[in-house]
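User: Fold both of these, please.

Assistant: Here is the first one.
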Amino acid sequence: MIKPGLIMTPGPTEISERVRKAMASPITNPDLDPSFFDFYAETCDKLKKIINTKEDVLILSGEGILGLEAAMASLVEPGDQVLCLANGVFGEGFKDFAELYGGQVTLLQKNYDEPITSEDVKDFLAKHGSRFKIATVVHCETPAGLINPIHEICPLLKEAGAITIVDAVSSIAGHEIEPDKWGIDVVLGGSQKCLSAPPGLTFLSISQDAWLKMEKRKYPIRSFYANLMNWKEMWFKDKIFPYTPPISDIFALFEAASAALEEGKAIYERHEKLGAAVRETLKEVGFKIYPREGAEANTVTAFYIPDGVDDEKFRKHLWENYSVMIAGSWGKLSGKVWRIGHMGENAREAKIFELFRAFEKALKDFGITTGKNLAETYALKIS
């Protein structure tokens, strides 16, 4: 049995009862029932509104990494010059996928606690020229709790002639984006983050420029499952799915997207307010936030682990004794920072209050005193 508790990780998040019930709806044969074709299209239309784009949107059967790989498999050809903007684990991960499909990768790298700025991009392009066919960047680097200013970066990359791919898995519905205005060709999202649907689906928007590059390829796409052209030729033309879609997961995503649209602009205000409250609470009782000031994400907070505290032992203790789960981090930040996910259904005042109550108890169990009551400090921040 899965242990019940409060899951305050940066995705997968908790899901609402409304979404859980939608997932339990009776199913049909999604390959043959015309009513499901309409339902899938309607779900994509809802995601279009959330992404804030007029471009095509698809839902693929697989976690967010599938969207990333599908974009790279479909757009990168052997020999293509690919620029990967990398100041975190997922930014660096784009390099691996680009090289897997034959791309020649150049990295623009910065420290994990620093955002990549427009000046960084201008200087880099001035030095290396406009030879890149594809450029990738991560909006929210979840392992570091950092947000990159894609509204400044992507127009420069687009002007330089690159097809721009943005991993917005941990920011969509938490930070407002305008891909059509900012020159973003492919936006990647995931069901289990700010929309708070169950994990298992990726969705993405695809511009006409991106479709055109795929259509003009010299070499065939070296995948079937990750081949986006199959969707263009089968789904958009003939309303045939390339493979059987996971109908119950899509029921849940439809409901989660509906809830986000009903909340409207307030969804961004909620994430901004509660993200700031979490950071200010932690700073007031003595914790240090990981990213540099001004680069913090509204959806996840990464903060330094106190000296002498074992990351895994503490998080295990918090879960086993107080039924609250937070996350550590990955790669260079493993064992150095803890992460609190305040995205989607986790971005609720009461849930964060309960998190801080349990967190303080666990800290005391490890001999750490904060001087101020965490939950009470947080309550004052949101009042």
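And the second sequence with its predicted structure:
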Amino acid sequence: MTKKQERDRARRRWEKQQATQQAKAEKQARLKRIAAIVATVAVVGGLVGALAWRMKPEPDPEPQRTAAGCEMPPEPLGTTAKLELPDKATAAGKTYTATLTTNCGDIVLELDGTKAPQAVASFVQLAKADYWLNSPCHRLGTGEGFKLLQCGDPTGGGQGTPGYGFAVENAPKDGTYPRGTVAMARTQDPKKGNGGQFFLVNGETKLPDPNGYTIFGTITQGLDIVDKVAAAGVQPGGESETTGAPAAPISILRVAVTEKKA
């Protein structure tokens, strides 16, 4: 073998070695790039996941409930009104259905314009004027012979009026108010003491007032709501252990009235 052939052979070996080393270096570099890409994807994925977790909306909290299991009522508006007493002829001989929507559900009444036209005419007017919007039922009686829920004062304090008063009508002679009765609450004045307040009777009630209280309707649906509120009792510091503000607050949110056609 000539010297030239030996040099050519040595050059080919060197070139082969160089090619092998270059291929190995390129493979290592490729593996490093792949590892870097995988690591980057993992980091980005982790950041996206963490961001998504942080941005996940919080579930709505459970609404607070009263002792009777109802949603908490809104704050009362605290206002009364200055309205004119409606003509009782507008309700005379008519029957109405009134739906009291409360924070505990609907209480449905049937109003008797034949027996108590003035009270029914007033009730219909006040309902259409949204007088009882967010109005608390401020007084509860749970004692023997005095089982009722008093409502109708938008101030929530028991002193609010619609700006007028009217006389007692259709009062029971024996002072007995059966379960399911709807009657007007009033001041001591039997001539002008009726206004916007009324009571829902959930157990036979005896009110031995000589002038009585106007019965103007009956509860046809939702008496169980009054029972639930009564079962929770009254707040401490009331008139007595069995009469005072309901421990489970209940408010009239709105009232809808429709005339029943014969």
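Residues 88-260 form a domain with the Cyclophilin fold (CATH 2.40.100.10).
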